[in-house]
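Hi Y.,

Following your request, here is the sequence exactly as I used it, all 156 residues.
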Amino acid sequence: MEYRKVLYFLMLCIIILTVLVLYLFFPLISLSVPHKTSRPAPGITVINQSGEINKHSGTYIVTGTAQNTGTTAIVKIYLVATTYDANGTLLGSTYDTLLNMNPGERASFRIETWPYYKGYLVSQYSLVPDYNYVPTMPGKGDYYIPTPEGSPKPTI
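Below is the corresponding structure, written out as tokens. Let me know if you'd prefer a different format.
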């Protein structure tokens, strides 16, 4: 009987200590994560692009070629694809990373868009070169939402 009282007391102490640690340190952890904001990249031009639903996975995939049209080399850039349904409602965003592009250089990209495996929901997308990728998920903290600009309709 005494053993149970000691066990309950230890469990209560562990719970109180855990809550105290989370209360004290969680704000410090969350503040240490840098908040990124969008920084559109003016030196990148998308030369061609197309979007289609992958027949095997059902994911909507955007592919194409981008070119560094600027006068300086680009070390790292994100090509962000943001998807929308038929009503223009945001579905989410994903990206591909382009690395080490000299002026005039071209690079191909392939972006598996969000929502994965549900490409049939995608009606249009926007494609934006950006120095900082900012995830855009409905209800998950939408920091940057580009508007769709006449993107191609999905093909199967």
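The radius of gyration is 23 Å.

Thanks again,
Q.
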